Amino acid sequence: MNEWQVIPEIVGCNAALRRAALKAMETVEAGHPLLIEGETGTGRRPLARCAWARRKPGPRALFTLDCRLFGSEATEEALLGATAATGAPIHSGIKGGVLLLHVEELAHKTQERLLRLIEAQRKRSSGGLQLLMTCAPEDISHEALLPALPGLVQTVRVPALRERIEDIRPITESFLRNASPFERVRCSQAMFEKFCGFDWPGNVTQLRAVLRRMMTLPHGGLLDVGLLAELMFRDDTCYALMQGMPPVQQMPGASMMPSAADGRSLV
User: Fold this and answer.
1) Is 89 strand, coil or helix?
2) What is the pLDDT of residues 34-90, one digit of tens each?
3) Buried (b) or exposed (e) across 75-97, using 16+ Cβ within 10 A?
4) What is the bridge-based pairing of β-strands 129-135 and 96-101?
């Protein structure tokens, strides 16, 4: 692990990222509920899990629940048990921690019950269950968070990749070392310039997906812009990188690739 890394799972030297990681670890260590905000692909879940794993005494079980998959009713049932309908205090038999992913997807009535659960936990001197949560920005969320929820817990924000351009190179190099441990693979300077000029709406996850796609082609140990040209008509992100287009304006589900209808040649 490099000296500038707070935890090995989070690659980058950005000051805002370091502050978020340190605050997350301090909050979990103190036994307080934690809310990690950030865009998709920024590393909210790894940060939460790493903070939990480093708590003292040794880590207890951390149950992870994705609110997008379970929905509000199943989430209430998991946290409240048979008394979910009454909004009673949290089930006393649950110990350790619960990581709620995408808590903004919960209905407001469920979030209100979460508020009561957190308030009940704050009155406990020790033991019981500790809540860790992640959420996305309000402009892309489904229900959005109740204003009272972030104010009742410790909140940290993981910066988007476009806000920490200085981390693109170490993230890329770290990924290539892990993805190809028996072969030295690197990116050209022109490739890094393309990466640094891109908005990365999918953040680190999207960057790694592009690198993974490029490594499927013959590359001779060097990932260069020429590989993007080979992939640009098969991958929206590669097309946007080649064209210098900001993909943040892309509509969900829409393709950025040219078609016969828009007058651009596909060959």
Assistant:
1) coil
2) 999 999 999 999 999 999 988 887 667 888 999 999 888 888 887 776 544 444 444
3) bbbbbbeeebeeeebbbeebeeb
4) parallel
Cβ–Cβ < 8 Å for 222, 192: no
Q: Is 135 helix (H, G, I), strand (E, B) or coil?
A: strand
Query: Tokens 């794993």 label which residue?
Result: 53
pLDDT in tens, 225-238: 999 999 988 899 99
Q: How large a percentage of the chain has pLDDT more than 90?
A: 48
- Give per-residue pLDDT as tens, 142-178: 568 888 888 889 999 999 999 999 999 999 999 999 9
Q: How many residues does the chain have?
A: 267
Structure tokens given for 8: 């090995």
Task: Write the CB contacts of 178 (distance below 8 Å, at least 6 apart in sequence).
Answer: none
- Which residues contact residue 61 at a Cβ distance below 8 angstroms, ignoring those fewer than 6 apart? 95, 96, 97
What mean pLDDT value characterizes the chain? 81
Distance (Å, rounded) from C-alpha 38 to C-alpha 204? Answer: 12
Distances (CA, A) of 185 to 43, 115, 197, 243, 265: 24, 49, 22, 25, 33
Q: What domains does the chain contain, in order, with CATH numbers?
A: 15-159 (3.40.50.300), 162-260 (1.10.8.60)
Q: List, as one string, the DSSP characters of 164-217.
A: -GGGHHHHHHHHHHHH-TTS--EE-HHHHHHHHTS--TTHHHHHHHHHHHHTTS
